[in-house]
Amino acid sequence: MSDLRWPTSARHLIASTTRDEETSVRRPTLLIALTTTALALSACGRDEGGSGADAAPETGEAVSTEDLSGELEVWAMGAEGEALPDLVAGFEEAYPEVSVNVTPVPWDSAHEKFVNSITAGTTPDVAMIGTTWMGEFAGMDALDPTPGSIDSSAFFEGAQGTTEVDGTSYGVPWYVETRMVYYRTDIAEAAGYDEVPTDQAGFHEMAAAMQEQEGVDWGISLQPGQTGSWQTVVPFGWSGGAELATQDAYTLDTPQMVSAVDYFGSFFTDEIADANPPEGQTEATFTDGSVPMFISGPWMMSLVEDFAAEGGEDAFGEMYDVAPVPAADGAESSSFIGGSNLGVFADTENRDAAWALVDWLTQPETQVEWYDMTSALPSVQSAWDDEALTQDEKLAKFGDALTTAQAPPSFPTWEQVAAAFDAEMEKVAKQGLSGEEALQAAQSQADSIGTGQ
């Protein structure tokens, strides 16, 4: 399952069903002049030469923004699909001969709808695409390679990587999110900690020390397997130098990943984390202090603060903070980067206008306006210089974490492999399976599934 089936990272949108009412009056769109012509770069298609990790991705044929006209069909999921029409009105003002129709698509049926439309040849011109779907759709030859006129270096590196399949870029990052440690500063202080240790051993000790405080049941909440648990475990591996794949194979059972899975499992075997936590209780247990740490994305800030406010605690924002995922000795913290990409489908009959819209949606000014409307975090690094994002200290920390965040392999089969990985992580958390045993099983299944290339 794509990480994007979680609620949007929009901080206020997710916490309140009245957000659309609050933003129904759209402030003037900040326009920028798009390039009128683009230099022709490399031809469409995949890179057969096996580009290195640092090589620029192959790109598609040039586009022109001269004399744009016609209609564009855009699909977007969830809250983004509801809010996008207000934003693209600015694009229509800049290009009055282009009409943009946005179709909201429910997340729970989105993947099937896309696959069916690809098979039937009825895809939209432009769409919001889950980051873990890129490899699958590119493997079906459904996506148009990104024109070289779009500057891939403008985006967070990890986010840009989610658009690249076999050396070719097939879209652009639209908005992003990553995961950090949430912790109760008051309980941490009572346990003797002014800040969260950056090393994994020290972090484990802190969780244990916090569990010893009055009213605390568990030192930390970690997802004990099940769908998407890889997003909790893999960052421990990345933060120890692990890599999940080479160019043509999965590498789940490396020593670095074995160490990371054992580290994850230690929280359960040491009974610092609950292997059978009640569902949907994170806000309650965090605000009442019974579970004073968890790992999640930026959307949780509004959820815990709103939950606390409903209980009469209006200053809860001062009682917690966020910190990077702890790293192994000598390594750099690296979390999971999620969010959403924008892609143009290969069957579009209005390619120039489609890519012009994508380019416009990822300009810094437009990204800041989108954040103002929905709180979806910008994928363009320069947009983070805007005061709207820098004034929130916790949010700024998420921006820092995004600079080192990573994405899983873009192989078409990743979601199948991730499901196998998740099943093994549940055994680690609930049955005490070792990292070596769990990853041998996951690697065997990954080898059977293959990369799909």
UniProtKB/TrEMBL annotation:
GO terms for cellular component: ATP-binding cassette (ABC) transporter complex, substrate-binding subunit-containing. It comes from the Bacteria. One of its GO terms (molecular function) is maltose binding. GO terms for biological process: maltodextrin transmembrane transport; maltose transport. Pfam families: SBP_bac_1 (PF01547). Keywords: Signal, Transport. Residues 45-65 are annotated as: Disordered. Belongs to the bacterial solute-binding protein 1 family. This is N-Acetyl-D-glucosamine ABC transport system, sugar-binding protein.
